[in-house]
Amino acid sequence: MTRKNKTTTMNGSERGPDGDPDCTEVLEDDSRSILMGIISQLGKGTDLHRVTLPTFVLEPRSMLERITDFMSHPELLLEATTLTDPLERFVKIVGFFLSGWHIKPKGVKKPYNPVLGEMFRSRWKYANGTEGIYIAEQVSHHPPISAYHYASPENGIMIQGNLRPKPKFLGNSAATLMEGSSTITLEGWDDEQYFITMPNVYARGILFGKMVMELGDNCSIKCPKNGFVCELNFKTKGFFSGQYNTVIGKIKNEKTGQVLKEISGAWTNELFISSPKSSSKKQSLFDVKNSNIHSMIVEQEQHQENHESRRLWSKVTDAIKQKDQDTATNEKMLLEDKQRLDAKERQKQGTSFQPQFFELNNITNEYILKNIIQSND
Q: Residue 361: CB partners within 8 Å, gap ≥ 6?
């Protein structure tokens, strides 16, 4: 099943791919005063992960669920598995990666920081009769690490990754440095792998002016087997010039440095690809308006385990949707207090937290789904 853009998530948060094209929001005076009161106590460069933010800046879903936005256009990934030309496969993987960023809440919002041990599960049914499954778990709290795993065995696709966000206060802006990486494996092409890093996220105008959410800085996609690399630059708007939400990039032969393809456009609208010698002949790489968001299937909350994201955060989510910020704040504090009590209890007993679904691969220092670590012997 697919849904036409604009859409609403199953938890009720609006995710219009166009919506406000600049991801902007003007805070009411009371809300800005609360935010300024918190920020006035911080120094530039402060790690915001340890700061309790007011609930009016929260998107009502967990980061573990937010990651599934990148599985919203599976047709790109499924098509990649059918292409015999390595460069065409690489281009399709680049398009798949770029297709996940346009899904966003209205205004300037951030998802919930997952609590330790929190998990999220979902699946998708595809038109070819196959399906994809996803599971994510918060495997560390200090520092925060979200481990996730997607698989579509019948299509020979696997995605695994660790997200290690580092929020920082930068004066009139806040940044989330999106450390960590994802790996896409196409098993049908001799376990061909694509290694992906993320751009950073910026919230501008948090003290004065119009608040704006932007993606910025550089990231890359690499396929060592075929020798391709895509270097992407997410552009932030300058104070006097430039545009919001633009990205440029080049696909190169990593050994020779030869530019094979060029990428340009707006990740909220349409992205284009061209050959370097014929940049005027651009082809559409991904078009938001002509693409459908593929619905995911999530177990009803009453059937979920207590530590599954939607059930765990349900009272906070309900309060935010009802614009009852006092209740949302109280319910959020209850979750955070319980997390602190659990940590004290583990310390008292001399034990440490052990993830339920993931384990640390000591070779790569990444958390991967249990029972899939392979020996290099």
A: 367, 368, 373
